[in-house]
Amino acid sequence: MEEEEYSSYPPVFRHIGGHSSAAHGGGGAILPSVDLPVVDFQDLRPAALGEICREWGIFRLVNHGIPPSLSRRLHDEAKRLISLPFELKQTRFAGDPVTYFFGTPAAASPSGESTGGLAEEFGAQSSAVARELFETLAEDLGLAGERRASSFSGAGKLLRLHRYPFSPLAGGHLGMDAHTDSSLLTLVSDGDVGGLQILHGGAWLAVDPLPGSLLVNLGDMMQAISDDQFKSVKHRVQASNGEERISICFFAFPPEDRPIRSSRYREFTYRDFKAKVQEDIQAVGFKVGLDRFRI
């Protein structure tokens, strides 16, 4: 590619695209691939879904009701916004809720204005799907009363557009490090470009795409609420050496100040959790997460 074709990348990454992998020994180890369990949203069964979440903590959701045309239009709009020159994005989105960012976990949701209302529509439909999934899992766990009602009612929501640039040197570069999500549930529209990897049974596995599906993974808050029955799956993203990956991620969080009570953790709120994560990132350079609250 010509240098100008990398103008949408942060300056520190632009040189990567102009070199061949042969010259730099690029390319990462090939991992075994996995087809994740597939769940039909129109046939949710608490026991079956609970079993998947105990074993995997992640699954593919089909027949979820979000129109393919909406996902496609939002992906197209995300690609258009992300493909703008880097310097223009910094200027254009300064102070805009789209919050163009690179390298920060503190991004806001894209605004309705910047995406023509598509983000708001996708977020609203994703929220409805996430609520139904949570209710199904709560039924499997036997959650009742205030504990069940307060975990999702008034929950926080965040929609992010993630871009993983392609490069001949992509093996080990320009992806996302291994982490768990802090959410209750995360819903991801990841199109047909692979790159996601999960830690399962002590080994890293490459997740195959399933166009039209939503990827659903459980986060730290769901693990805590479930008394560690469900697992917040550790995952990472490996950039492709031939195609850009753009994913649309919807995160559902518990209300910030509602107590989270568990037999495995001392009582805390999501606000407490966020504050401790930020402290750890500054002090030790990474998120420690739930272990900070474990009894």
Automatic annotation (TrEMBL):
GO molecular function annotation: metal ion binding; oxidoreductase activity
Extent of the signal sequence: none
UniProt keywords, alphabetically: Iron, Metal-binding, Oxidoreductase
Cofactor: L-ascorbate
Alphabetical list of Gene3D superfamilies matching this protein: B-lactam Antibiotic, Isopenicillin N Synthase, Chain (2.60.120.330)
InterPro entries associated with the record: DIOX_N, IPNS-like_FE2OG_OXY, IPNS-like_sf, Iron_ascorbate_oxido_reductase, Oxoglu/Fe-dep_dioxygenase_dom
Domain Fe2OG dioxygenase intervals: 151-254
Pfam families xref list: 2OG-FeII_Oxy (PF03171), DIOX_N (PF14226)
TM ranges: none
Cross-referenced PROSITE patterns: FE2OG_OXY
Keyword Transcription part of the UniProt annotation: no
Similarity comment: Belongs to the iron/ascorbate-dependent oxidoreductase family.
Name used for this protein in its record: Fe2OG dioxygenase domain-containing protein
Top-level taxonomy: Eukaryota, Viridiplantae, Streptophyta, Embryophyta, Tracheophyta
